[in-house]
Amino acid sequence: AMATVLLVYQIGQPRIWMAMSRDGLLPPIFSSIHPRFHTPWFSTLVTGVMVAVPALFMNLTEVTDLTSIGTLFAFVLVCSGVLVLQEKEKSLSSTPRGGFRIPYFNSKYIVPALVLIGIAIFLALVFDEGKNFSYSSQYLYSVLPMSIFLILACMVAFICFKRELSLIPVLGLLCCLYLITQLGLTNWLRFAIWLLIGLFLYFAYGNRHSKLQKKTIH
Fold first, then answer.
1. Residue 118: CB partners within 8 Å, gap ≥ 6?
2. Which residue has the higher pLDDT, 90 or 192?
3. Please, are residues 102 and 155 in contact by the beta-carbon 8 Å criterion?
4. What are the tens digits of pLDDT across the range 4-25?
């Protein structure tokens, strides 16, 4: 499964960078097409280097953990995007449009109920384990990820109760967030550094060259 994910990344990431370059978020060279093979050659080379070099200096566990958290974060964005699009469709028009549509199930009461059950189970386990463990850094290290997930889940449940979001993408969002919190704090730090690099590139270049932003301004 991990080999499949890495292969998809190697093939798909250059196309993503090509699309971002055409939107102005990356320099134009990322969207340059090879005259013979008709592929984004520069993006493919950069992707290969960015995958090969870290793989030389990192062990297999670190590589798989980073791959997992990156893939799960992408799924979080997809589920969030589905929710945003559904909310936009409600505000723009009541006329249904064609294409693939996700069945709508109201999450107003289901998600808050599931979150409350999860909190009850978590507290029961914490108090049970607290009898056998001293409140050391190791104990806090084991409890902190789940605590962060439950805080995020409570925020999602509150939004579901207020906005009556669709159940299926919300469940997908919560499942991915739960799996992310189980990957460990060290992996979070590595991924946070990766996100900071991406944000720096966006505000240093992409924000000023974005074609979509220019259309919005005009």
1. 150, 153
2. 192
3. no
4. 777 887 888 899 999 999 988 8
Give the model confidence (pLDDT) of 99-145 as tens digits: 557 788 888 899 999 999 999 988 888 777 655 555 556 666 677 88
User: pTM, whole model, 2 decimals?
Assistant: 0.79
Task: Report domain extents, the chain.
Answer: 1-57, 59-207
Q: What are phi and psi of 106, to 5 degrees?
A: -65, 125
Residues 6 or more apart whose Cβ sits within 8 Å of residue 6: 51, 67
Q: What is the 3-state secondary structure (H, E, C) of the chain?
A: CHHHHHHHHHHHHHHHHHHHHHCCCCCHHHHCCCCCCCCCHHHHHHHHHHHHHHHHHCCHHHHHHHHHHHHHHHHHHHHHHHHHHHHHHHHHCCCCCCCCCCCCCECCCHHHHHHHHHHHHHHHHHHHHHCCCCCCHHHHHHHHHHHHHHHHHHHHHHHHHHHCCEHHHHHHHHHHHHHHHCCCHHHHHHHHHHHHHHHHHHHHHHHHHCHHHHHHHC
